[in-house]
Design goal:
Elements lengths: L1 H7 L3 H16 L17 H9 L5 E4 L21 E4 L4 H16 L2
Parallel strand pairs: 1-2
């Protein structure tokens, strides 16, 4: 679906993120500076460029094995552009714990 949507608007992902951020800021202006926005499923170079231009911390989640992904022919985000790489070869709970721990670590810096 994402590829079909991108044909009509290549910025559809970025537009959706911006809308969500501005909506939150409108409802919670006093909390805005204390909130961490977690963006998942970053796949395209223009999305990476937008995130970097907005001072985002880029974290890559890797796992062993493969599965069918219709977007697999898209170039992967190069490790050079990421701040951290998280291993996702355990349980869902282990991944959630790792992500939560890393977010706390990043917020301290």
């Amino acid at each position: 679906i994402q590829m079909k949507l991108r044909q009509g608007n290549s910025k559809i992902f970025i537009d959706g993120i911006e809308d969500s951020i501005y909506e939150f800021k409108g409802y919670h202006p006093d909390q805005f500076d204390d909130v961490v926005f977690l963006i998942t499923d970053l796949r395209f170079k223009d999305e990476l460029k937008w995130c970097r231009s907005n001072n985002a911390t880029i974290i890559k989640v890797k796992r062993n094995g493969s599965y069918f992904d219709p977007l697999a022919d898209q170039p992967e985000i190069d490790d050079l552009f990421v701040t951290d790489i998280i291993d996702n070869n355990g349980s869902e709970q282990q991944l959630a714990d790792t992500v939560a721990g890393r977010i706390n670590l990043w917020l301290q810096h």
